[in-house]
Amino acid sequence: MTAGLAAGALLLTAGCSSGDGGSSGAGPSASASRTAVQGSSSPSAEETPPAKGTVEVVRTVAEGLNSPWGLAPLPEGGLLVASRDEGTITHVDESTGRKTEVGEVPGVSAAGEGGLLGLALSPDYASDHMVYAYLTSVSDNRIVRMIYDPKRPAGDRLGAPDTVFKGIPKGMIHNGGRIAFGPDGMLYVGTGESGDRGLAQDKESLGGKILRLTPEGEPAPGNPFPDSAVYSYGHRNVQGLAWDSEQRLFASEFGQNTWDELNAIKPGGNYGWPAAEGESDDSAYVNPIAEWHTDDASPSGIAYAEGSIWMAGLKGQRLWRIPLKGTEASADPQSFLQGDHGRLRTVVAAGGDRLWVTTSNTDGRGDPEKGDDRILELKVS
């Protein structure tokens, strides 16, 4: 792959990044990242964002959350937040910060990096009021959906879960867990290889993949492999999914010892794990558009806003900005909030130049302070 806008990466000795990253202090910033050109498919008129951006913490939306993971803004206002370890979903009033537990999701078996993970609203939420959740059960990782009824009493606002997809490998580590409905109305699912590296290259396995499903949990029409939910493979542990303004999919991925990744996702693409971690000279693998030393990222959630991907760092304890031109990083990644709020887990676009960001200091790997965990509102450019 041709190096573009090379940062002259500062090669550091990086410890193993477990599925969610460790709780280390912050290391160097952009000098520990690399960007590379992959050949853009963007229209020539597409505007390139500035090389440098800004981040302002507008306010703390809520605090006192336990192991927050999934975050789903409601169209009627308010945020639904999943607690990984408690298996509960909480409604947060984004104006007042008031927290109301809406219910516990049955069947959650929280251990290690597993539990109640990603949340997503049905594309038809206005009529069906369905909330989808990715959870770890006693036997596997699976996706369920539930009716959310805000008119019911607190603690009893979730209907019985309906399992729409199951059989994703589970482990103490590398459970993936991010789910999101794409612009095409299909459900995209980031999975991990559960610590069994060979699953990532096995197209018959659901581990180490990005899956694409119908809302009913069937393999989506047009998937690259016949009768298969697999959309891309060769992943280690995907916890971030986001689309840009041209409906192109990007995903973040945990590395092991050397390179975390941001990838532009191609249907049927092989992203190399375990043979490749980060950039590879093997043309069989799709190379990342940006990569980081594991001490500086260990990325979970991502979101698209203001022409850039914004990526949460757990072990790196910072927010990364990756400006885009098509499916390329148009400038070196830039870091913000380094060490200011500890581990960052989830990033969600809040409209315009705003983001919601959750901290993750009560997940067993952080150093929680009074008020953790929090939801922050950021203004970005």
Automatic annotation (TrEMBL):
<dbReference type="Pfam" id="PF07995">
    <property type="entry name" value="GSDH"/>
</dbReference>
<feature type="region of interest" description="Disordered">
    <location>
        <begin position="16"/>
        <end position="53"/>
    </location>
</feature>
<feature type="region of interest" description="Disordered">
    <location>
        <begin position="358"/>
        <end position="381"/>
    </location>
</feature>
<feature type="compositionally biased region" description="Low complexity">
    <location>
        <begin position="40"/>
        <end position="51"/>
    </location>
</feature>
<dbReference type="InterPro" id="IPR012938">
    <property type="entry name" value="Glc/Sorbosone_DH"/>
</dbReference>
<feature type="compositionally biased region" description="Basic and acidic residues">
    <location>
        <begin position="364"/>
        <end position="381"/>
    </location>
</feature>
<dbReference type="InterPro" id="IPR011042">
    <property type="entry name" value="6-blade_b-propeller_TolB-like"/>
</dbReference>
<protein>
    <submittedName>
        <fullName>Glucose sorbosone dehydrogenase</fullName>
    </submittedName>
</protein>
<feature type="domain" description="Glucose/Sorbosone dehydrogenase">
    <location>
        <begin position="65"/>
        <end position="365"/>
    </location>
</feature>
<dbReference type="InterPro" id="IPR011041">
    <property type="entry name" value="Quinoprot_gluc/sorb_DH_b-prop"/>
</dbReference>
